[in-house]
User: What shape does this take?
Amino acid sequence: MNKRVTFSVLAALLFMFCVNFRTVSAADSTVIYLQAETLEAPRNVEVKATCEMKNPTMLTNGKLRILWDKDKLKITSSEVGKGLNGFHAVLNDILHPNADGKPVKGEGELVLAFATVEPTEVSGSMLDLSFIMKEGTKLDSSSLTVTVEELCNNGQDVESQVLTTEINVNSGGNDKPEPPVEDTRIDISKATVARITNKPHNKKWIRPVVKVSYNGQLLVEGTDYALSYKSNKKPGKAQVTIHGTGKFKGTKVTTFNIVPAKPVIGKVTSPAKGKIRVRWKKVKLTTGYEIQICRNKKFKKAVKKVLVKKASAKTKVIKVKAKKTYYIRMRAYKTIDGKRCYGSYSKKIKVRVR
Assistant: This one.
C-alpha cells in the first residue's frame, strides 16, 4: 500500500447503554474505517467492532494492524469478515496461536494479512472483533487504533484513506430529544506543528515523529490526536493528517519530503589527462544527481559541482586539472514543487588525475 494510515476511535463507555460510531463522508477513494458499538452487560461492557472497506476496489493482498489498550479492554473473539471471501486470510493475535500452540501476538495487538492470486473486489467487513472492558476499570473512554500497512493490486499500491468518526450517543429509550450539547473541544487546526525534516527513501512506509503543541504545551499522540499518512513510501512530497481526539477536534494537514537514497560510487578513475570518470549505482525513483569534486577532503572550499539531470545515468566524465589529487562525492535529488531536494552524500573517493 502507498501509505501507511492510523486513526483512534474514542467511545464514551461508562453508564451508557449503546454508543455507535458514525463515519463522516469522504472522497470516492478506497476507505478503511472502524465501526464500533458498546453494549452494557451485567458485569462488564462488551465492545463489538467491525473493520470495513467502503468504495470497494480490486486487491491481491493487504495487511491491517489493530492495537487496543490492553489495560482497559480484553479481546474475546476475532474473525475474518465476509468482505474477504475469496482471499487466503491469516489472523495473528492471542486468540490464534501458531502450530506450537503459542500466541503469535501478545494481548493488545492483532495483525490481519490476506492475499489471493487473481485481483478480487473487497467490499464490506474485513474483520469482526469483540472485547470486554475489564471489571473494575474506571474510565470514560477507550481507544482502538487501526493501521493500514498494505493494500496492493498485482504489486501496485492502492490509494486509500481512513475516515475520522463522530460519536452518536443513544440514551436507551428516552423519547424526548436531548438538548444540544455545546462542543467545547479545541480545533486541532489551531495547534502548532513542528517542521518535519527530509526523510531518506528506504523502500518502506515512512512515519516520522510529529510534534504537535497547543499554547506551548506538547500534545500526546493517541490521547490528543491521531495521525494518518499519504504518499509516504516513494520519494516526493508526503502528507500527514492530524486528527483531533479527546478534547481536540477537526484536522490539520502538514507535509514532509522523502528524498532519494544515498548513492553508492562504484569506481573513480582518470581515463585521460585532466579527466575523471565517476561510476555509480543508479538510485531508484530519483530525478538526477549532483557530483562534487574538491582538492580539500573536507569539501570546505573551491568545490566544483556537476549536475547530472538524467535519472538513469550511471557514469560521468569530468574535466579537471591534470596531475592533481581530488576527492569526489555525490548525492541524488528529487524535484519537489519545482525545487531540487537532495538526499545524503555518498562516501568520498580519492583519485589522482593523470
